[in-house]
Structures are given as C-alpha cells and as structure tokens.
Write a structure and sequence with these properties.
Number of helices: 11
Radius of gyration: 38 Å
Oligomer: single chain
Structural class: alpha+beta
Helix content: 25-40%
Order of helices and strands: HHHHHEEHEHEEHEEEEHEHH
Strand content: 15-25%
Length: 356
C-alpha cells in the first residue's frame, strides 16, 4: 500500500507545473487530512510488532514525499526566475528612485554659516566644558554673589563637591572666554558656540539652547571695532546690505560700557524681515570687556583692551528662516525637520565671504 501511494504521490509531484499546484499536492499528502498523515496516525493503534514492521515504511514514505516536494519546488522557482530574466529589461536611462535621507537641522546650518562668516574675519572657534565651576561661570566674569543669575531658580546646580566647590551647567558660553584668556596670550580673536542651560521654558525660551559669543583682546581695541564687527557679521548673515544697527546703553557685569544691539527691520508681504529701518528689534548684547575680567585672567587692563558679544543661535535661525516658536527645535518632529531642515547636498552657504 505504501509503495503504491508513494508512486502515486511522486507522479503527482512531478506533474505539478506551478508552485500552487505543487502546494496542493503537499496539502493532499502531508496536510492534517492528507493521505500520508492518515497513515502516520494509524501507527498509534498498531501492536508493537506491526509498528516495527510498518513504521519504517510509512516514515520512509513521508521522507520521500517531503524530499520530492522540496526538489520540485527548487526546480519550479529556478524555471520562474529564468523566465523572468528572459523577459524583463532594465532601462538604465531612467532616473534612480529617490532614497530616504536625513536633513541638516537649522541650528547646525546656522552654526556653519556663523563659523564661515567669522572665519573670514579672522576668528577661531573655541570650546569648553558644559559642566562648569562657579569661578569660570560667574566670579571671573565679575558677577557678584548677590546677582540674580546665581539663584537656584535660574541656574542648574550640582551637589557641592567635597571641597565645597560649586559645579553647574554653564548658563552662557562666556566661561570659554575666561579659559581662552587664561591659557593663551593676546592677541585673541575667538567665537565660542555651544549649548547652554537656564531654568526657563516658553515659546521663546527653553532649558537648553545654543549660544555663540565672540571675544577680541588686543592693544588699542575700542568700541568702533565692535560696531564694525557686528555690522559686518549681521550683513553677511542676513545677506542684506541694508542692515542698520542701533546701539543702546545697557548693563552687563562683564562689560563696561555695555550696549544692546538692535537691528532695523521692514515689513515685506505682511512679514517682518531684517533690513531697513521701519522698526527695531534687539538681537544681541555686547560691550567692552570689563577691567576686572581682564585682571581676573592675569592680563594688564592698562595694556590690553577688548570687546565681547553674545547672541542665541536658535534666535538667529528663527529670524532668518521665519520660525515663530523655539520649542519645536527640540521636539524631534520629522514633519518640522523636513519642512525647515536643509539638504546636506544643497544647503545654502555664504561661500562668497564677508565681502560678497
């Protein structure tokens, strides 16, 4: 019986001319209600002697059918592939399908633009730790113990060190200026971009944001040098020659005199754009480096003078590229990134330089 069934099933397997037909033979033989499966079920009701005689034949039938189906399947798949290769053609002149790719975050794009602009002006990029000590972040910058910026509700402090040293997340990149002045001799001309942290959160403030500061220390530096630097920088960044600045007296502990810098804007197509002088918008703070800061870094303020300035990279990105809320910068929403992000292959650059 098993021999006859084997011949019948192998004949059916050989006659199957499609994968669907072969699968039908498999189900009829090896499925739950298949003929081979039915024979296997009879082994349980046999005596030991009968099982010893019939078991090898039935199991051999199952193995032969299984092997025959596998061989036939490989043959049918190979034949189908050969037929497909013989009929299909690939048009090499068609454009390749676009593959998914990431984008450059607006903050990274603006940071690249700023670095390029200041490199043209002779500035180097300086960096420092984001976990700072109280001296570099406050004391060396002439920020007194009673200054509100030192308060717990403004600054993220770590538990005090064993020696009483206070550690914190830096509230600005100004400590990089201190580290630079204490580690290299003038002349100094640097920008210090990086992440900073303050306890604040709304549409225009986040607990972590990006800031860039500039520092120049040399002999004979005056406020006119600061104004020229800022004017040249803002014209290059916003790519407009009609950028107008207004400097207003202000107060910062680490500069004297201190000035807030406003930039003129115009209304074009119902939107506020940088350029012109229909209104004024504050963009950064600056001033001449305070004598006490220069002294704290071991330099003679009667010999060396300098200026410093600082602004938010995120704020510059919002002004230039028309964003009205700072929080999506850090949400990681792919829809926002696709809309405001830049392609790594065709990002706008300022390759023409400051003088363009």
């Amino acid at each position: 019986m098993t021999e006859a069934l084997q011949i019948e099933l192998l004949t059916a397997i050989a006659a199957a001319d499609t994968l669907d037909a072969l699968d039908a033979v498999r189900i009829a033989a090896l499925g739950k209600a298949g003929s081979v499966s039915a024979l296997l079920k009879t082994l349980g009701g046999m005596t030991p002697e009968q099982r010893q005689a019939e078991g090898p034949r039935i199991n051999g039938l199952r193995e032969a059918v299984t092997a025959g189906i596998a061989d036939r399947k490989r043959g049918l798949e190979a034949a189908a592939l050969d037929a497909r290769l013989a009929t299909e053609r690939l048009d090499m002149t068609l454009p390749a399908p676009e593959t998914p790719r990431g984008s450059v975050h607006p903050v990274s794009q603006v940071l690249d633009e700023l670095s390029e602009i200041f490199a043209d002006m002779g500035f180097a990029v300086a960096t420092g730790p984001e976990i700072e000590d109280d001296w570099h972040n406050f004391t060396a910058l002439n920020i007194p113990e009673t200054h509100p910026a030192r308060a717990m509700h403004d600054t993220f402090y770590f538990p005090d060190e064993v020696d009483g040293k206070k550690m914190l997340l830096r509230t600005h990149t100004s400590p990089v200026q201190i580290r630079t002045m204490t580690s290299q001799a003038p002349p100094i001309r640097i920008i210090a971009p990086g992440r900073v942290y303050r306890s604040d959160s709304d549409a225009t403030h986040t607990p972590m944001f990006h800031q860039i500061e500039g520092l120049v220390i040399d002999r004979g530096i005056h406020l006119g040098h600061l104004k020229w630097t800022l004017e040249t920088f803002l014209k290059a960044f916003f790519e407009r020659n009609d950028v107008v600045l207004r400097l207003r007296p202000s107060y910062f502990p680490f500069t004297e005199p201190s000035v807030e810098v406003d930039v003129g804007y115009s209304i074009e197509k119902g939107k506020r754009v940088i350029g012109g002088s229909e209104g004024w918008m504050e963009v950064l703070g600056s001033g001449m480096v305070h004598r006490r800061v220069i002294e704290s870094c071991g330099l003679d303020p009667d010999e060396y003078q300098g200026f410093a300035f600082g602004t938010g990279i995120d704020r510059l990105a919002m002004l230039k590229y028309g964003m009205d809320d700072l929080r999506p910068f850090f949400d990681g929403d792919l829809r926002w990134l696709k809309h405001y992000g830049f392609s790594a292959f065709d990002v706008p650059t300022l390759s023409g330089g400051v003088g363009a």
